[in-house]
Amino acid sequence: MSTTTLTGRSAPPAAPRPDTAPRRRTRVLSLPEARWAAAATVLFLIALPLQLTGAPAWAWGPLYALAYATGGWEPAWAGLQALREKTLDVDLLMIVAALGAAAVGQVMDGALLIVIFATSGALEALATARTADSVRGLLDLAPATATRLLPDGGEETVPTEELAVGDTVLVRPGERIGADGRVLDGASEVDQATITGEPLPVVKETGDEVFAGTLNGTGALRLRVERDASDTVIARIVQLVEEASGTKAPTQLFIEKVEQRYSLGMVAATLAVFAVPLAFGAAFTGSLLRAMTFMIVASPCAVVLATMPPLLSAIANAGRHGVLIKSAVVMERLGQVDAVALDKTGTLTEGTPRLTDLRPLTGSGLSEERLLALAAAAEHPSEHPLARAVVDAARTRGLTPAAAEDFTSTPGVGVTATVDGRVLAVGAPARLILERTDAASVEAAALAAELEEGGRTAVLVEADGVPVGVLGLADRLRPDAAATVASLRALTGTAPMLLTGDNPRAAAHLAAEVGIADVRAGLLPQDKVAAVREREAAGRKVLVIGDGVNDAPALAAAHTGLAMGRAGSDLALETADAVIVRDELATVPAVVALSRRARSFVVQNLVIASAFITVLVVWDLVATLPLPLGVLGHEGSTVIVGLNGLRLLRESAWTGARGWRETLD
């Protein structure tokens, strides 16, 4: 139905808005944690070469002192605040260890510890800020204003947050819909990929539900508002992402308890090493030196570095092969997954419809190429995704569409145009042939049903009112989709499940092609979250792979979320724990296997670090451990575990991960 019919006057189409929310990115140096970490790093990098080249202490000593102050004051202050609540965290312990190292002359070691912890805190703050940015930016998908129709037939422009349940809203062509509601009048095709992930616009007519933030097509719609602005699907996506992200604490409760016990035990032991010999008449200097040596050899530096090099090396290796892992915590969690949930459009498929079938009718006298040339000529002026797919297919075959005259487009029906004197109609078979019983229409209906049964979208082509052929279009499956699904099934020991907002028939057809039996179709974002939580409630650690705004809540709620990077929405990319930058789905099993190798290296390094600490501590307590030998042992253990972890930087580590069937137990 035209805009003139609805409003009594013609209105030009509104300029289309972007399909994704504008990016709101917090600048790195706008974060105080990042500024302090950068200052500490710069000071350390200036002081280190001065010290190593034999410059006098007055040249590098103040620089190290400033590095201690700039990088250490925030964790020290946080640790002191924690002490007020009778909690001792590991950050404060590391500050004490750094000061202890400085007290016995190991100023550079202490400064390095400060720089490491300051940088880690800055990265965590940046990740938190970026997630908050993307969640806030999602709200920009919904327009700021809407056209509300008054009882007397007039119109008024109001902020969308002022819309109330029961209001009638006019949505013109090209505008974004401002509220969740139901169509009262009009017909159009609405692009609701931001909500459901469907690759093609959906026809909306009287009685159909529409969602805020989705993009109206070429028709005008009159809607009745059914939800307040705070309760729209898009608002609930924001809420779900915030809630799920908040449950992803960086440190597990068990680890916090271990940290507390270790921290308290180390402080108590250091004081005892100093006080007990002193009480039995030992010299003050000797007791202090032994206590400081104990502080150095018992410090968790080697344990920290035992964990990070394998994970960071695996992150760097994955990055070289197109997988961006956002943190070491994510790399470790990837190796724990034992269930996988995949989105359909843009994940298992490429997200763009393509021509798959050309079926000229028996009596049409047309070849496949002539049928395609006619359809492309009629569709050439259209901006519909299916029309672009037809035109692209014609160009790929070297066909140049003829000029079309008298072009018209009817939402939900199709297009008509005059080409070389023939009136062509291209559109939905059910709308064009409806209940015709002539032979050509019956044959066309049968072909359309066959194509749709195979998971394709059928498009009928008519010439001068007579059906001449049927086209089939479908979103193309990624070449590596089936192999990836099989690898993930073998790797995790469970069959992946498909979570999609697309229709059940298309979803079931694609799932059968890739070997997925558990199919959940027609899902809204909250339904995807519910499916993920259902699996996790059964004790599974779920990896969710998706690409759209509609996948973001599930990505956040999952044990680990992985986004397809090339066409992924801003929110999905920010919410996900990892991003496949090159859209190579086959890298997913490889990065999971690489994570498992990294975790095994972490275990090896922890054993090595613990052995060194144990031997050195016992030596210091039972005998007299010379300070230089203690420092050498402490630094030696750090070097060993660091080099062991760096083995995962080698190309062979990724090759081994790709061949995980042979390398995993």
Description:
- With 665 residues, this protein is of the alpha+beta class.
- Helices cover 53% and strands 17% of the residues.
- The protein contains 25 helices and 22 strands.
- A 7-stranded mixed β-sheet has the order 10-22-21-20-11-18-19, with helices on both faces.
- Strand 20, helix 20 and strand 21 (560-564) form a beta-alpha-beta unit.
- The longest helix has 36 residues, at 587-622.
- The two termini are 64 Å apart.
- The model is unreliable at 1-23, 247-255 and 661-665 (pLDDT under 50).
Write the layout of secondary structure elements.
Layout: H1 3-7, H2 32-52, H3 57-84, H4 90-103, H5 107-138, E1 145-149, E2 155-159, E3 168-171, E4 181-186, E5 188-191, H6 193-196, E6 202-204, E7 209-210, E8 215-216, E9 221-225, H7 233-246, H8 253-279, H9 284-298, H10 301-320, E10 323-325, H11 328-334, E11 339-342, H12 344-348, E12 349-360, H13 368-379, H14 385-396, E13 405-410, E14 414-419, E15 422-427, H15 429-432, H16 439-453, E16 457-463, E17 466-477, H17 481-492, E18 497-499, H18 504-514, E19 518-520, H19 525-537, E20 542-546, H20 552-557, E21 560-564, H21 570-575, E22 578-580, H22 587-622, H23 627-646, H24 651-658, H25 660-663
Parallel strand pairs: 11-18, 11-20, 18-19, 20-21, 21-22
Antiparallel strand pairs: 1-2, 1-3, 3-9, 4-7, 4-9, 5-6, 5-8, 10-22, 12-17, 13-14, 14-15, 15-16, 16-17
